[in-house]
Amino acid sequence: SVELTQDPAVSVALGQTVTITCQGDSVRRNSASWYQQRPGQAPKLLIYNADKRPSGISGRFSGSRSGNTASLTITGAQTEDEADYYCNSRDSSGQPFVVFGGGTKLTVL
Amino acid sequence: QVHLRESGPGQVKPSETLSLTCNVSGVSIITHSFYWAWVRQAPGKGLEWIASTYYSGTAYYTPALRSRVASSVDTSKNQFSLTMKSVTAADTATYYCARLSTSENGGWLYYFDLWGQGSRVTVSS
Fold this sequence. Notes:
The complex is a heterodimer of chains A (109) and B (125). In chain A, 5% of the residues lie in helices and 43% in strands. Chain A has 109 residues and is mainly beta. In chain A, the strands form two sheets. In chain A, strands 1, 3, 4, 7, 8 and 9 form a six-stranded mixed sheet that branches. In chain A, strand 7 and strand 8 (98-100) form a beta hairpin. Chain B is mainly β and 125 residues long. In chain B, strand 9 (93-104) and strand 10 form a beta hairpin. At the A-B interface, strand 3, strand 7 and strand 8 of A face strand 5, strand 9 and strand 10 of B.
């Protein structure tokens, strides 16, 4: 299956801006979505269709895409943003499969 | 309000079959453009997609597990299920049911907009 690559860990100072990336051919051909998973909780949809936020998601979260890289940007990071972040897309092989990135653990310093 | 809730055995012995059910409330499972999916997460690991099933019964499986899993939908009960045979310790994980939205507009858009709280499964004798 096609892979989506994420940095395993990223850190950001409180109140600063951080970008988490997701690379792969799947993202070049299809839209990426992003999820936040806090410890002991189920994932929560943050961004879909590259840059759309579901109702109730803070405007501090934004998404974008360039080529084969999707990005999630958190502006003004808060302590509650410390979590794991995952991207996903449809498999680029033509099969109706789902692919996930390996996840990025965000630490807020 | 829409809720998904998994139910499962908690523990399964190696080589046995795991059965999980996801009860959907607040929305009909007979909904166009949505699949009903299973995603798992082994302890300390990332998310792994297992299966997606349409209300009609059409199902897709990750190649890595295709020979051992089956997913089905029961529209009369508004629930869907996953069975996994011949489990091993490597199948120990939290299993999530989720709703997968799909659409195409120059490229495919796949995203999970609703999740259950997860069902922890341990494979152990």
